[in-house]
Model the fold of this input.
Amino acid sequence: MNRNGLTPAEQEALESLSRERTPSRLLEERTVRALKQRGLIRSSSPRPGVVRPWMAIAAVAASLALFASGLTLGQWLGARQTVDALAAFYPDRTERAAALVQTTGSAHTAALSGLIEATAQADQQALEQAREVALAALWSAASEVVRLAPDDPLAVRILQEFERARTGQDAGEEARNFVWF
Amino acid sequence: MRGSPGVSDRELAEALLLHGDEKAFRNLYRRHTPRLFQFVLRLLGGVEIDAEDVVQDTWIRATQRLGEFRWESSFSTWLTGIGLNLCRDLWRKRNGRELDWEMAREPAASSSLYEERVDLERAIGVLPSGYRAVLILHDVEGCTHEQIGQRLGIAVGTSKSQLSCARKAMRELLTSEESL
Done:
């Protein structure tokens, strides 16, 4: 016997007894529900203005999803007749028209960029047609810019250069072979 | 200790008390329930259903009285004290008295006791409630006789004498099992 009145074996056996045991998970939920019913705790809900980690992750995921869907839509629109499609989206209002100019301008530039990358595979006739369409679009665009802002020096200069090039060519030159999409 | 290791019991308790913060409660619960559950389960002789009820009631009572807790002892000690009182309430309801000091001729768990190997845990479980409480508090939880006297509402001398009886009964149970 030790001074505690136990044999060493008893002491060891008592010390080896577990001090912790986890009850079923249901007990926690049951207890929380009981406390809520008594008004002793409130449901956990995000406080206004507090950004929790899961919120940030969700926001990033939502942003990526929005970006991906926007990209897909853009590609789809680009594959279709871009101007017509966007015109359907943007009726008459000025700000929407301005947005349309920006969007279709970007699409036009992107199309030209794609054409440059594809020159190795494209046949010469198609390339020539595309180049002429691009120039015609540039001339049309410059004309519209001059209508919008008659004193715009760059647009005026572009039109003058176009006029000079046109008059320098013979009347017997082949007619341009535009193919509009 | 489990969950939110950087946050003290007191901070969690204050969040629970002032804001009814569910997350704070769950942290406290997960931190202290395994010890509370084992303590109560042992006191109740291994009856899990009763132990779960007592643990739930312990948390309800602790949450209701959180504002009265002065933090002069640890939160865990205070919590197990509430659990012990609820066990005493249960014994009173079941047996008409809080602490039973008499060994039954046929212990409640006798069938399993004699059919299976009796280990120390089972031997404790079949002791009368009074013996069991004193033995657990002294030999398992490490309380002094003065603390046991306060917690169970008995004299220090009673605690000492009943501990001696409890140990004797426990040894007899274990010896009788070995001889089978």
User: Anything to note?
Assistant: The two ends of chain B are 41 Å apart (CA to CA). Chain B touches chain A through 33 residues (CB under 8 Å).
